[in-house]
RNA sequence: GGGCAGUUACCCAAGUGGCCAACGGGGACUGACUGUAAAUCAGUUGGCGACACGCCUUCGGAGGUUCGAAUCCUUCACUGCCCA
């Protein structure tokens, strides 16, 4: 139950007890538990926040349970109302297929591909009739939706709440029923969908309600707000080891416990050792964060790449050296510095380049350059800011 | 269907005829400092440029009024509220 967050101790205890019972039942029936988590194929770019439930799925997988990675290609026509952007255009079937594919690909950095079942919820949702929907919907009241935090806020603010958004929960509940799910994993923003909607729908359809594993929300690099791409505080999965390592290093110290619990492979005992070390001063916060960054990076890119990323980080930010691998660009001898900066994409525009030069952010082999109009005196490593390098050579 | 309010740069949000490339906040970027790309402080944050506050593009879309508009008018689109 590490990293879970129910916001209500009674609910947590209830789920814990139910999970134990269900495990015993399954054992008697000689079957694994059916676990699933749904993913919205709207956004193909996954970040660490998305991997929180995947880590939990992986744990179940390692215990021999049956894990389904459900791609919500039908529900994505609506968009989860817990998302702020409700007015995004509908995706074409091609886009959904493509996103779903890349989604699964990224997910398999964590999940075991051989043990993971991939399903699409259009398989059953597209077959429901209007009459079916009415019957399902009759289990819910408008008040239940209006007391939900995200609808409540929008209601109070006078923002739009579309009727079809309420279907989202019902559909998700039907997913759980259609798959005869034992356990459903999701973030705290899924509490209503999993606990209220899914359990209600399953009970109504004559099935045993699924057990909710509700996980905490991973804060972004600011350490406070939920990680999201639109807020610009995300750490993407499809990047490289060095970038991921660095980005994890940039989280505030206060976010370390949450990261440790939600996105590492560490056991509660492992985490306790680190936290005790921090408490009694035997472990430096910076070193603790390095461990964390290394662990997170290793879980995606493997141990050796993570080690290399750590070395590069130390060299670059603690010793201020040039990184090992620097992209190389051939330039002509008479190009002005500004032209070179733009050509190497070290700056966004010439105006941007001028600013960088004025702010003493442009260096050639460690020496600050002050004139953007001049060509370079010699070949070398051109640096903009702390972390953008290009090795320039004359043609 | 009717009435009212709104649509501003990456996001939030001022601005109601010239001093607006547009206050402020967030974010991002640069520098100093440091235990890191943290915190703090300072600066920058449309593009071009012979670097002169000179030119070009931007304030939902399209027209119009005016020497001159983000600011006024017309119209279209979208959103919210109230009434039906």
Automatic annotation (TrEMBL):
Give me the segments passing through the membrane: none
Specify one Pfam family.
tRNA-synt_1b
Q: Name one GO biological process term.
A: tyrosyl-tRNA aminoacylation
Record keywords: ATP-binding included?
yes
Query: This protein's superkingdom?
Result: Bacteria
Q: Which residues form the RNA-binding S4 domain?
A: 336-395
InterPro entries this protein is in?
aa-tRNA-synth_Ic (IPR002305), Rossmann-like_a/b/a_fold (IPR014729), S4_RNA-bd (IPR002942), S4_RNA-bd_sf (IPR036986), Tyr-tRNA-ligase (IPR002307), Tyr-tRNA-ligase_bac-type (IPR024088)
4Fe-4S: is it a keyword of this entry? no
Q: Which reaction does it catalyse?
A: tRNA(Tyr) + L-tyrosine + ATP = L-tyrosyl-tRNA(Tyr) + AMP + diphosphate + H(+)
Q: Which UniProt keywords apply?
A: Aminoacyl-tRNA synthetase, ATP-binding, Ligase, Nucleotide-binding, Protein biosynthesis, RNA-binding
Q: Which GO terms describe its cellular component?
A: cytosol
List the CDD domains. TyrRS_core
What molecular function does GO assign, one term? tyrosine-tRNA ligase activity
PANTHER family documented for this protein? TYROSINE--TRNA LIGASE, TYROSYL-TRNA SYNTHETASE
Tell me its family.
Belongs to the class-I aminoacyl-tRNA synthetase family.
Q: Which NCBIfam families match?
A: tyrS
Q: What is this protein called?
A: Tyrosine--tRNA ligase
Q: Which organism is it from?
A: Leptolinea tardivitalis
């Amino acid at each position: 139950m590490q990293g879970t967050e129910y916001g209500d101790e009674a609910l947590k205890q209830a789920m814990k007890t139910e999970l134990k019972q269900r495990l015993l039942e399954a054992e008697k029936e000689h079957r694994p538990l059916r676990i699933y988590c749904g993913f919205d194929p709207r956004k193909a770019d996954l970040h660490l926040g998305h991997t929180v439930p995947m880590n939990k799925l992986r744990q179940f997988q390692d215990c021999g349970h049956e894990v389904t990675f459900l791609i919500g290609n039908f529900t994505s026509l609506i968009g989860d109302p817990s998302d702020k952007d409700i007015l995004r255009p509908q995706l074409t079937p091609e886009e959904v297929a493509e996103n779903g594919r890349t989604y699964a690909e990224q997910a398999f950095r964590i999940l075991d591909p051989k043990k993971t079942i991939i399903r699409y919820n259009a398989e059953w949702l597209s077959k429901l009739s209007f009459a079916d929907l009415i019957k399902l919907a009759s289990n819910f009241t408008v008040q239940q939706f209006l007391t939900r935090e995200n609808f409540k806020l929008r209601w109070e603010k006078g923002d739009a709440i579309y009727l079809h958004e309420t279907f989202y929960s019902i559909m998700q509940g039907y997913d759980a029923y259609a798959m005869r799910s034992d356990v459903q994993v999701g973030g705290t923003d899924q509490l209503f969908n999993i606990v209220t909607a899914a359990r209600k729908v399953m009970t109504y359809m004559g099935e045993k309600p699924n057990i909710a594993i509700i996980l905490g929300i991973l804060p972004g690099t600011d350490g406070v707000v939920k990680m999201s791409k639109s807020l610009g505080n995300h750490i993407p999965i499809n990047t490289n080891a060095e970038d991921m390592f660095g980005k994890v290093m940039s989280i505030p110290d206060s976010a370390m416990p949450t990261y440790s619990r939600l996105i590492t492979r560490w056991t509660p005992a492992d985490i306790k050792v680190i936290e005790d070390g921090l408490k009694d001063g035997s472990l430096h916060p910076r070193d603790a964060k390095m461990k964390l960054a290394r662990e997170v990076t290793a879980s995606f890119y493997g141990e050796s790449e993570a080690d290399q990323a750590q070395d590069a980080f130390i060299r670059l930010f603690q010793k201020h050296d040039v990184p090992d691998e620097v992209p190389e660009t051939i330039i002509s001898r008479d190009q002005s510095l500004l032209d070179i900066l733009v050509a190497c994409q070290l700056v966004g525009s010439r105006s941007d380049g001028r600013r960088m030069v004025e702010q003493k952010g442009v260096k050639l082999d460690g020496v600050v350059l002050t004139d953007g109009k001049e060509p370079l005196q010699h070949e070398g490593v051109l640096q903009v800011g702390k972390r953008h390098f290009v090795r320039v050579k004359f043609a």
